[in-house]
Structures are given as structure tokens and as C-alpha cells.
User: Fold this.
Amino acid sequence: MPELAKIWLKELNGEIPATEKCLERIHEKTWEFKPHPKSMTMGYLAQLVAEIPFWITNMLEKGEIDFANFKHAELKTNADLVAHFKSNVEGLQKALQHATDESVNRMFYLKAGGKELFKAPNKEYITPTFHHWVHHRGQLTVYMRLCDIAVPSIYGPSADDKTF
Assistant:
């Protein structure tokens, strides 16, 4: 396993527990909440947090995501959301465990209908994608606070969860 894949696997495994705790608390009755008209809904944001590990799997295994054929899961319940997250995490763990120098160094292409929007080598862009994931989880905790959903400990105690 390439050294970068080992680092990414460690980062992934470190973020899973707090992310899962957040997603477990997002009841479908709050999915339409948005703090501002320009904001995404909580349901979309929670799904994004659940799906970003799948993005990284695609980066490693296929080298591309095309918005034209990227299908979001159809989630109806919180249990669906959590199961989707767990499935995506398991897929990424396997992809990282089986990563090769070729997959780590592969060029990643983000496309819309075949048109290239962005490209970068995986070795340079997977770490920022992890940061993007953590950023959206942080947004989700703000939404949770605004909806009076207890925010779990993430990197230390929260106002709602003082155990660590």
C-alpha cells in the first residue's frame, strides 16, 4: 500500500466515528431545513457528508466523476442515510487498502456532461477532498445546533456532549 494511501486511511478512520454520530442524529423531519434561502437543505447536506467518501473511491478507482451520470442515493429515512454512509466508508476503506502507486498518482477529472471542469492528480487532491468533507460536516453541526439537535463530540467535548 502506498504511503499516501496509509495516511488517507488513517485520516478516514479518524473521522468516521464523529461523522457517523452526526448523521445518526439527522431525523428526516429536519431534512428540508435551511438556515438561509441560499443555503442547501439539511437533507442534501447530510447526504453530501455521507457521499464524499464515495467521491474519493471514484477518484482512486475510476479517476473521474461526471455530474451528468453521478446518481445520488434515494434516501427516505435516517436509517437509509446512515447505511449509505457506512457503505461508502467501507468502499473507501477497501479502495485505500488496495490502492496502488498508479491509482494514487492517477489524474482525477471532474466533468459535467463530458466537459472537463477540473483536473488534478489524486496525490494532490485527495487530501483537500478530505478537508472538503470535514468542512461540510462542520456546516452540518451548525444546522444541527439551529434545529436543536444535540451536537456530538468531534475533536473534543461539545456543549451537548461533555464526555470525551
About this structure: The chain has one domain: 3-146. The domain at 3-146 is CATH 1.20.120.450 (Four Helix Bundle (Hemerythrin (Met), subunit A)).
